[in-house]
UniProtKB/TrEMBL annotation:
InterPro entries associated with the record: D-isomer_2-hydroxyacid_DH, D-isomer_2_OHA_DH_cat_dom, D-isomer_DH_CS1, D-isomer_DH_NAD-bd, NAD(P)-bd_dom_sf
PANTHER family for this protein: 2-HYDROXYACID DEHYDROGENASE-RELATED, D-ISOMER SPECIFIC 2-HYDROXYACID DEHYDROGENASE NAD-BINDING DOMAIN-CONTAINING PROTEIN-RELATED
Identification of the protein by name: Glyoxylate reductase
Keyword 4Fe-4S: no
UniProt domain D-isomer specific 2-hydroxyacid dehydrogenase catalytic: residue ranges: 106-378
Family: Belongs to the D-isomer specific 2-hydroxyacid dehydrogenase family.
Signal peptide (UniProt feature, chain positions): none
Amino acid sequence: MAEPHNTPVPGSTPRATSPVGFLQQAQQDHAAPKPPAKPRVLHLGDRIRFNPGTFDALSSRFQVVRPSTPERQRPQFAAALRERRWGDFEAIVRPFWDAGGEMGRWDAELIDLLPPGVKVFASAGAGLDWVDTERMGERGIVCCDGGSASADAVADFSVAMIISTFRHLPWCILAATSRGATEYRDCHLMAPERSHNLRDQALGIVGMGNVGQRIAIRCRHGFGMSIHYHDIERKSSSIEQAVAATFHATLESLLQASDCVVLCAPAGVGSGTIVDASTLAHFRHGARFVNIAHGALVDEDALVAAMDERRVSAVALDVHADEPHPHRGLKRLAGHGRAMLTCHNAGGTVETLAGFEELSMRNVMAVLSGGQALSPVNLGHLKDQGTLGGAGRASIMRAHES
Protein backbone atom coordinates (compact mmCIF):
# COMPACT_ATOMS: atom_id res chain seq x y z
CA MET A 1 0.00 0.00 0.00
CA ALA A 2 1.50 3.31 -1.03
CA GLU A 3 0.28 6.09 1.19
CA PRO A 4 0.82 9.66 -0.06
CA HIS A 5 2.80 12.09 2.06
CA ASN A 6 2.29 15.81 1.67
CA THR A 7 0.61 15.29 -1.69
CA PRO A 8 0.76 18.61 -3.61
CA VAL A 9 -2.24 20.25 -5.14
CA PRO A 10 -2.46 18.96 -8.72
CA GLY A 11 -1.03 21.40 -11.23
CA SER A 12 -1.45 21.63 -14.94
CA THR A 13 -1.07 18.52 -17.08
CA PRO A 14 2.34 18.30 -18.85
CA ARG A 15 2.20 19.06 -22.58
CA ALA A 16 4.34 17.85 -25.45
CA THR A 17 6.90 20.43 -26.62
CA SER A 18 6.74 19.88 -30.39
CA PRO A 19 3.96 21.56 -32.49
CA VAL A 20 2.79 18.18 -33.72
CA GLY A 21 2.76 16.74 -30.25
CA PHE A 22 0.93 19.78 -28.98
CA LEU A 23 -1.76 19.40 -31.65
CA GLN A 24 -2.18 15.70 -30.91
CA GLN A 25 -2.45 16.40 -27.19
CA ALA A 26 -5.08 19.08 -27.80
CA GLN A 27 -7.09 16.73 -29.97
CA GLN A 28 -6.92 14.01 -27.30
CA ASP A 29 -7.98 16.46 -24.60
CA HIS A 30 -10.95 17.56 -26.69
CA ALA A 31 -11.97 14.00 -27.56
CA ALA A 32 -11.65 12.60 -24.04
CA PRO A 33 -12.47 15.19 -21.36
CA LYS A 34 -10.81 14.52 -18.04
CA PRO A 35 -12.91 13.26 -15.15
CA PRO A 36 -13.49 15.75 -12.35
CA ALA A 37 -10.79 15.93 -9.71
CA LYS A 38 -11.30 13.78 -6.65
CA PRO A 39 -12.37 15.55 -3.46
CA ARG A 40 -9.42 16.06 -1.14
CA VAL A 41 -9.01 14.73 2.40
CA LEU A 42 -6.45 16.22 4.79
CA HIS A 43 -4.83 13.39 6.77
CA LEU A 44 -3.24 14.55 10.04
CA GLY A 45 -0.70 12.36 11.82
CA ASP A 46 0.90 8.98 11.30
CA ARG A 47 0.35 6.79 8.30
CA ILE A 48 -2.35 4.11 8.42
CA ARG A 49 -1.18 1.01 10.30
CA PHE A 50 -4.06 -1.34 11.00
CA ASN A 51 -6.63 -1.02 8.22
CA PRO A 52 -4.91 -0.89 4.81
CA GLY A 53 -8.02 -2.12 3.02
CA THR A 54 -10.10 0.77 4.33
CA PHE A 55 -7.35 3.22 3.42
CA ASP A 56 -7.24 1.80 -0.11
CA ALA A 57 -10.99 2.40 -0.35
CA LEU A 58 -10.57 5.96 0.96
CA SER A 59 -7.69 6.84 -1.35
CA SER A 60 -9.38 5.32 -4.40
CA ARG A 61 -12.33 7.69 -3.99
CA PHE A 62 -10.58 10.76 -2.61
CA GLN A 63 -7.22 12.45 -2.93
CA VAL A 64 -5.49 12.05 0.45
CA VAL A 65 -3.05 14.80 1.43
CA ARG A 66 -0.84 14.17 4.48
CA PRO A 67 1.16 17.18 5.74
CA SER A 68 4.60 16.48 7.18
CA THR A 69 5.28 16.79 10.90
CA PRO A 70 6.93 20.25 10.57
CA GLU A 71 3.94 21.48 8.56
CA ARG A 72 1.62 20.46 11.40
CA GLN A 73 3.24 22.82 13.94
CA ARG A 74 0.72 25.56 14.65
CA PRO A 75 2.44 28.57 12.96
CA GLN A 76 3.31 26.58 9.85
CA PHE A 77 -0.07 24.87 9.80
CA ALA A 78 -1.97 28.16 10.02
CA ALA A 79 0.22 29.65 7.29
CA ALA A 80 -0.43 26.67 5.02
CA LEU A 81 -4.19 27.03 5.51
CA ARG A 82 -4.01 30.73 4.62
CA GLU A 83 -2.02 29.91 1.48
CA ARG A 84 -4.40 27.09 0.51
CA ARG A 85 -1.30 24.92 0.24
CA TRP A 86 -3.40 21.76 0.30
CA GLY A 87 -6.15 23.12 -1.89
CA ASP A 88 -9.85 23.15 -1.10
CA PHE A 89 -10.00 19.91 0.87
CA GLU A 90 -13.42 18.74 2.06
CA ALA A 91 -12.56 16.56 5.05
CA ILE A 92 -10.03 16.21 7.84
CA VAL A 93 -9.11 12.82 9.26
CA ARG A 94 -6.93 12.24 12.32
CA PRO A 95 -6.74 8.45 12.78
CA PHE A 96 -4.58 8.36 15.94
CA TRP A 97 -4.96 10.26 19.20
CA ASP A 98 -1.16 10.31 19.77
CA ALA A 99 -0.26 11.91 16.42
CA GLY A 100 -1.65 14.69 14.29
CA GLY A 101 -2.38 17.20 17.03
CA GLU A 102 0.79 19.26 16.78
CA MET A 103 -1.17 22.41 15.89
CA GLY A 104 -2.83 22.36 19.32
CA ARG A 105 -6.37 23.37 20.09
CA TRP A 106 -8.80 23.72 17.21
CA ASP A 107 -10.26 27.11 18.10
CA ALA A 108 -11.74 29.92 16.03
CA GLU A 109 -8.28 30.94 14.79
CA LEU A 110 -7.77 27.64 12.97
CA ILE A 111 -11.38 26.82 12.16
CA ASP A 112 -11.92 30.12 10.37
CA LEU A 113 -8.95 29.37 8.11
CA LEU A 114 -10.47 26.17 6.77
CA PRO A 115 -11.69 26.06 3.18
CA PRO A 116 -15.41 26.79 2.89
CA GLY A 117 -16.19 23.32 1.55
CA VAL A 118 -15.02 21.31 4.56
CA LYS A 119 -17.81 18.96 5.58
CA VAL A 120 -16.38 16.62 8.23
CA PHE A 121 -13.67 16.52 10.91
CA ALA A 122 -13.14 12.90 12.03
CA SER A 123 -10.69 12.17 14.83
CA ALA A 124 -9.52 9.31 16.97
CA GLY A 125 -10.09 9.48 20.71
CA ALA A 126 -13.09 9.59 22.99
CA GLY A 127 -14.47 13.11 23.02
CA LEU A 128 -13.38 16.30 21.29
CA ASP A 129 -12.94 18.69 24.20
CA TRP A 130 -9.86 20.11 22.40
CA VAL A 131 -12.04 21.18 19.46
CA ASP A 132 -14.55 24.01 19.42
CA THR A 133 -17.27 21.75 18.08
CA GLU A 134 -19.85 24.53 18.23
CA ARG A 135 -17.76 26.74 15.97
CA MET A 136 -17.27 23.78 13.63
CA GLY A 137 -21.02 23.27 13.54
CA GLU A 138 -21.59 26.91 12.69
CA ARG A 139 -19.33 26.34 9.69
CA GLY A 140 -21.42 23.32 8.69
CA ILE A 141 -18.71 20.84 9.67
CA VAL A 142 -19.72 17.56 11.32
CA CYS A 143 -17.29 16.56 14.09
CA CYS A 144 -16.86 12.84 14.78
CA ASP A 145 -14.92 11.10 17.54
CA GLY A 146 -13.88 7.49 18.12
CA GLY A 147 -15.43 6.92 21.54
CA SER A 148 -17.33 3.81 20.55
CA ALA A 149 -14.08 2.13 19.45
CA SER A 150 -12.61 2.38 22.95
CA ALA A 151 -15.74 1.58 24.96
CA ASP A 152 -14.87 -2.05 25.76
CA ALA A 153 -11.29 -1.23 26.72
CA VAL A 154 -12.39 1.59 29.02
CA ALA A 155 -15.07 -0.58 30.63
CA ASP A 156 -12.58 -3.39 31.30
CA PHE A 157 -10.11 -0.97 32.86
CA SER A 158 -12.86 0.62 34.91
CA VAL A 159 -13.77 -2.74 36.46
CA ALA A 160 -10.14 -3.17 37.54
CA MET A 161 -10.25 0.27 39.17
CA ILE A 162 -13.55 -0.47 40.92
CA ILE A 163 -12.10 -3.69 42.33
CA SER A 164 -9.05 -1.71 43.44
CA THR A 165 -11.12 0.62 45.60
CA PHE A 166 -12.92 -2.23 47.39
CA ARG A 167 -9.84 -4.44 47.85
CA HIS A 168 -7.21 -1.74 48.49
CA LEU A 169 -4.93 -3.02 45.76
CA PRO A 170 -2.52 -0.04 45.85
CA TRP A 171 -1.83 -0.74 49.52
CA CYS A 172 -1.32 -4.45 48.85
CA ILE A 173 1.07 -3.76 45.97
CA LEU A 174 3.10 -1.18 47.88
CA ALA A 175 3.45 -3.41 50.93
CA ALA A 176 4.60 -6.34 48.83
CA THR A 177 7.03 -4.55 46.53
CA SER A 178 8.54 -1.47 48.12
CA ARG A 179 8.41 -1.96 51.88
CA GLY A 180 9.75 -4.34 54.48
CA ALA A 181 8.49 -7.47 56.16
CA THR A 182 6.61 -5.52 58.83
CA GLU A 183 4.58 -3.62 56.24
CA TYR A 184 3.94 -6.88 54.40
CA ARG A 185 2.59 -8.56 57.55
CA ASP A 186 0.55 -5.49 58.53
CA CYS A 187 -1.14 -5.37 55.13
CA HIS A 188 -1.76 -9.12 55.22
CA LEU A 189 -3.47 -8.82 58.59
CA MET A 190 -5.16 -5.41 58.31
CA ALA A 191 -6.35 -5.21 54.69
CA PRO A 192 -9.09 -7.84 55.23
CA GLU A 193 -10.62 -5.64 57.93
CA ARG A 194 -11.07 -2.85 55.36
CA SER A 195 -11.84 -4.80 52.20
CA HIS A 196 -15.20 -5.87 50.84
CA ASN A 197 -16.67 -8.20 48.24
CA LEU A 198 -18.30 -6.47 45.29
CA ARG A 199 -21.51 -8.49 45.49
CA ASP A 200 -24.50 -6.35 46.58
CA GLN A 201 -22.43 -3.17 46.72
CA ALA A 202 -24.18 -0.17 45.14
CA LEU A 203 -22.35 1.09 42.06
CA GLY A 204 -23.30 4.62 41.00
CA ILE A 205 -22.64 5.42 37.35
CA VAL A 206 -22.56 9.08 36.30
CA GLY A 207 -23.31 9.04 32.57
CA MET A 208 -25.01 5.89 31.26
CA GLY A 209 -23.69 5.98 27.70
CA ASN A 210 -21.57 3.48 25.78
CA VAL A 211 -19.00 3.05 28.52
CA GLY A 212 -21.43 3.34 31.43
CA GLN A 213 -23.65 0.60 30.06
CA ARG A 214 -20.71 -1.73 29.51
CA ILE A 215 -19.49 -1.16 33.06
CA ALA A 216 -22.99 -1.85 34.36
CA ILE A 217 -23.20 -5.15 32.45
CA ARG A 218 -19.81 -6.33 33.71
CA CYS A 219 -20.43 -5.35 37.32
CA ARG A 220 -24.02 -6.57 37.52
CA HIS A 221 -23.60 -9.92 35.81
CA GLY A 222 -19.98 -10.54 36.69
CA PHE A 223 -19.97 -9.44 40.32
CA GLY A 224 -23.59 -9.11 41.41
CA MET A 225 -23.38 -5.39 42.15
CA SER A 226 -26.47 -3.21 42.48
CA ILE A 227 -26.54 -0.70 39.60
CA HIS A 228 -27.63 2.92 40.02
CA TYR A 229 -27.17 5.70 37.48
CA HIS A 230 -27.73 9.36 36.74
CA ASP A 231 -27.95 10.91 33.28
CA ILE A 232 -29.67 13.93 31.79
CA GLU A 233 -32.01 11.54 30.01
CA ARG A 234 -33.43 8.39 31.50
CA LYS A 235 -32.56 5.30 29.47
CA SER A 236 -35.08 2.92 27.94
CA SER A 237 -36.70 0.24 30.05
CA SER A 238 -34.81 -2.43 28.08
CA ILE A 239 -31.45 -0.91 29.03
CA GLU A 240 -32.47 -0.57 32.67
CA GLN A 241 -33.91 -4.07 32.90
CA ALA A 242 -30.80 -5.64 31.37
CA VAL A 243 -28.81 -4.65 34.48
CA ALA A 244 -31.65 -4.05 36.98
CA ALA A 245 -30.60 -0.40 37.07
CA THR A 246 -32.16 2.26 39.27
CA PHE A 247 -32.41 5.73 37.75
CA HIS A 248 -31.73 8.82 39.87
CA ALA A 249 -33.10 12.12 38.56
CA THR A 250 -30.45 14.11 40.46
CA LEU A 251 -26.75 13.60 40.94
CA GLU A 252 -27.11 14.17 44.67
CA SER A 253 -29.58 11.30 44.97
CA LEU A 254 -27.19 8.98 43.15
CA LEU A 255 -24.23 9.92 45.34
CA GLN A 256 -26.19 9.30 48.53
CA ALA A 257 -27.14 5.81 47.34
CA SER A 258 -23.72 4.65 46.10
CA ASP A 259 -20.89 2.71 47.73
CA CYS A 260 -18.68 3.46 44.71
CA VAL A 261 -19.17 6.25 42.17
CA VAL A 262 -17.79 5.97 38.61
CA LEU A 263 -17.59 9.10 36.50
CA CYS A 264 -18.27 8.30 32.81
CA ALA A 265 -19.73 11.58 31.57
CA PRO A 266 -18.19 13.23 28.49
CA ALA A 267 -16.78 16.72 28.85
CA GLY A 268 -17.65 19.63 26.65
CA VAL A 269 -15.96 22.96 26.07
CA GLY A 270 -16.31 25.09 29.20
CA SER A 271 -18.31 22.41 30.95
CA GLY A 272 -16.82 22.94 34.41
CA THR A 273 -16.73 20.32 37.15
CA ILE A 274 -19.15 17.60 38.22
CA VAL A 275 -17.35 16.40 41.34
CA ASP A 276 -16.49 19.30 43.61
CA ALA A 277 -16.90 20.31 47.26
CA SER A 278 -20.67 20.66 46.93
CA THR A 279 -21.21 17.22 45.36
CA LEU A 280 -18.60 15.50 47.54
CA ALA A 281 -20.66 16.55 50.54
CA HIS A 282 -23.36 14.12 49.34
CA PHE A 283 -21.06 11.08 49.15
CA ARG A 284 -21.72 8.33 51.65
CA HIS A 285 -19.13 8.39 54.41
CA GLY A 286 -16.31 6.07 53.32
CA ALA A 287 -17.51 5.79 49.70
CA ARG A 288 -15.15 5.17 46.81
CA PHE A 289 -14.61 7.16 43.61
CA VAL A 290 -13.38 6.21 40.12
CA ASN A 291 -12.76 8.63 37.25
CA ILE A 292 -12.24 7.33 33.72
CA ALA A 293 -13.91 10.32 32.01
CA HIS A 294 -11.99 13.62 32.11
CA GLY A 295 -9.74 15.10 34.77
CA ALA A 296 -11.23 18.55 34.31
CA LEU A 297 -14.58 17.28 35.59
CA VAL A 298 -13.15 16.86 39.10
CA ASP A 299 -12.03 19.52 41.57
CA GLU A 300 -8.95 17.63 42.74
CA ASP A 301 -8.26 19.95 45.69
CA ALA A 302 -11.75 19.20 47.00
CA LEU A 303 -11.30 15.48 46.37
CA VAL A 304 -8.05 15.38 48.36
CA ALA A 305 -9.75 17.27 51.21
CA ALA A 306 -12.62 14.75 51.20
CA MET A 307 -10.12 11.89 51.38
CA ASP A 308 -8.18 13.49 54.19
CA GLU A 309 -11.48 13.75 56.07
CA ARG A 310 -12.17 10.07 55.23
CA ARG A 311 -15.45 10.98 53.58
CA VAL A 312 -13.99 9.24 50.54
CA SER A 313 -12.03 6.14 51.51
CA ALA A 314 -10.32 5.20 48.25
CA VAL A 315 -10.03 6.49 44.69
CA ALA A 316 -8.84 5.25 41.33
CA LEU A 317 -8.14 7.91 38.72
CA ASP A 318 -7.03 7.31 35.15
CA VAL A 319 -7.38 10.95 34.09
CA HIS A 320 -6.06 14.10 35.70
CA ALA A 321 -6.79 17.81 35.47
CA ASP A 322 -3.20 18.81 34.65
CA GLU A 323 -1.84 15.93 32.61
CA PRO A 324 0.88 14.76 32.64
CA HIS A 325 1.17 16.06 36.21
CA PRO A 326 -1.09 14.27 38.73
CA HIS A 327 -2.17 16.33 41.72
CA ARG A 328 0.44 16.41 44.49
CA GLY A 329 -2.11 15.51 47.15
CA LEU A 330 -3.31 12.52 45.16
CA LYS A 331 0.27 11.34 44.71
CA ARG A 332 0.70 11.55 48.48
CA LEU A 333 -2.41 9.44 48.97
CA ALA A 334 -1.14 6.96 46.38
CA GLY A 335 2.03 6.65 48.42
CA HIS A 336 -0.15 5.69 51.39
CA GLY A 337 -1.98 3.06 49.34
CA ARG A 338 -5.32 4.88 49.17
CA ALA A 339 -5.24 5.98 45.54
CA MET A 340 -4.65 4.16 42.27
CA LEU A 341 -3.29 6.64 39.72
CA THR A 342 -2.74 5.65 36.10
CA CYS A 343 -1.57 7.51 33.01
CA HIS A 344 -4.73 7.93 30.91
CA ASN A 345 -4.48 4.25 29.97
CA ALA A 346 -8.09 3.09 30.14
CA GLY A 347 -8.79 3.10 26.41
CA GLY A 348 -5.32 2.11 25.33
CA THR A 349 -5.33 -1.27 23.57
CA VAL A 350 -4.33 -2.45 20.12
CA GLU A 351 -7.99 -3.09 19.38
CA THR A 352 -8.85 0.48 20.31
CA LEU A 353 -6.13 1.93 18.07
CA ALA A 354 -7.35 -0.15 15.15
CA GLY A 355 -10.93 0.90 15.84
CA PHE A 356 -10.03 4.60 16.05
CA GLU A 357 -8.27 4.39 12.71
CA GLU A 358 -11.08 2.50 11.00
CA LEU A 359 -13.88 4.67 12.37
CA SER A 360 -12.18 7.95 11.43
CA MET A 361 -11.82 6.90 7.79
CA ARG A 362 -15.33 5.48 7.57
CA ASN A 363 -16.80 8.69 8.99
CA VAL A 364 -15.10 10.64 6.20
CA MET A 365 -16.25 8.25 3.49
CA ALA A 366 -19.80 8.29 4.79
CA VAL A 367 -20.14 12.07 4.92
CA LEU A 368 -18.36 12.82 1.63
CA SER A 369 -20.54 10.23 -0.06
CA GLY A 370 -23.67 12.07 1.08
CA GLY A 371 -24.53 9.74 3.94
CA GLN A 372 -24.77 10.12 7.71
CA ALA A 373 -21.75 10.34 9.99
CA LEU A 374 -21.22 7.23 12.11
CA SER A 375 -20.18 8.92 15.36
CA PRO A 376 -21.08 12.63 15.26
CA VAL A 377 -20.80 14.75 18.39
CA ASN A 378 -22.03 18.17 17.27
CA LEU A 379 -25.15 17.63 15.21
CA GLY A 380 -27.06 20.01 17.46
CA HIS A 381 -24.68 22.82 16.54
CA LEU A 382 -24.85 22.47 12.76
CA LYS A 383 -25.84 25.80 11.28
CA ASP A 384 -29.04 24.45 9.72
CA GLN A 385 -30.21 22.64 12.85
CA GLY A 386 -29.98 25.25 15.55
CA THR A 387 -28.06 24.70 18.78
CA LEU A 388 -28.39 22.30 21.64
CA GLY A 389 -30.56 23.46 24.49
CA GLY A 390 -29.50 23.35 28.09
CA ALA A 391 -26.35 24.51 29.79
CA GLY A 392 -24.08 23.89 32.74
CA ARG A 393 -24.02 20.36 34.04
CA ALA A 394 -26.54 19.15 31.46
CA SER A 395 -24.15 20.02 28.62
CA ILE A 396 -21.54 17.58 29.86
CA MET A 397 -23.84 14.74 30.83
CA ARG A 398 -25.00 13.70 27.35
CA ALA A 399 -23.22 10.39 26.87
CA HIS A 400 -22.41 9.15 23.38
CA GLU A 401 -24.62 6.37 22.06
CA SER A 402 -23.45 3.87 19.46
